[in-house]
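Two records follow; treat each independently.
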Amino acid sequence: AVIFGGLKLEPIGMPPRQKDSFVRGINLSIKELSVADIDYVSGVFGSNTVRIKLGFDWYQDMKKNKEEAWDRLFSVAARITEKGGLPIIVLDSVEGRILRSDTGLFKSPTLKKEFGSVWGKIASFFKDKGIIAVFDLLNFPNPEALNDWYELAKAAIGGIRTVDRECRIIVQFPSYDRVFEQPLADPGVIY
């Protein structure tokens, strides 16, 4: 049992992931996430899916190939997998200043290429480690023009597909009333 907020919580275990099983997930930032946290949320809350938010600091460290950024991501993703869970990796625009529309990410050909390259590195990392993950390209995208987000998403999907042809990719819309005119040409995309 764990005492949390004055309440005694009994662990219920992480249900095994099955084709027809339910998803019980939790959303955590890589900044404060540890292997012990994975044990806690799987044991107490029964989480079988953990959405790992990668913010601005992690994004910058990863671009510089800082080992500690990769090691931390690997350790928590591996633990989720060991527990029978599924990691969902998301670049978080709320936390990540570089991911806002005013940085030029949605317009700049250089930043678009970099964004695709970043996702290719992330996909390669997971494939090399043998970890199955879902990639959520950008949390709360906020482009001025929807087609800019469409093109940026295509670049990211291209980066991922150079190393992993089968993983699932989540593409969020800026809002429920701003959707693409046509779907992205990839059967592994979840909207």
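The next record belongs to a different protein.
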Amino acid sequence: KTTSEHPYLVKSGIPFVFIDETGIFGVNGSSMLGVGALKFIGKLDNINRELREIFLEAINTLPSEEKTFEFKFNYVKPTNLHIYKKLIKILKKYETKWEFNYILEKRSGVSFWKQYLHLLYRTLRAIPGRFTVLADYLNQPGKNSKSIENSVQNLTGAVNLLQLESQGSVFLQLVDVLLGAIAFKARKGKNIY
């Protein structure tokens, strides 16, 4: 099969939900944790192609220190702002093909991992229908802790779950950008970029 016939690109069955998390560590109880879910509806071939073109432009045109480029909200700066604006333009173009859900809340007294799993469960529970989850890879902290798969096994909507490194998916990187922007606004950030 050619790449254009690959099932990932041409099937429009069960939608994909891409998951990323953010941690905002502050003082005096101001630390927060968030989970974002970017759900795409329908075929991804066009948006995937356009995002890849922007990614390739980024790694081919940005200064040499950015050759391992990854889209992250915290990486926005004057030298790459034009690239991030192109990402937003693509999201605007396909605004009827995606939904973004998130939960951002104060850090609780439980471990980061337990709170992350709880937020992940709540975020996914709010998404209607059946879907495949592709989550940014987080290491499970120990053999005795609950796994990410076990934490969502009772959700009827989540039919598959796979953890990936965010460097391997521009879609996961988009979640970082969107969730990062929300977290930045929530903490009343001052950086103009």
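Discussion point: The mean pLDDT is 87. How would you locate this feature using only the token line?
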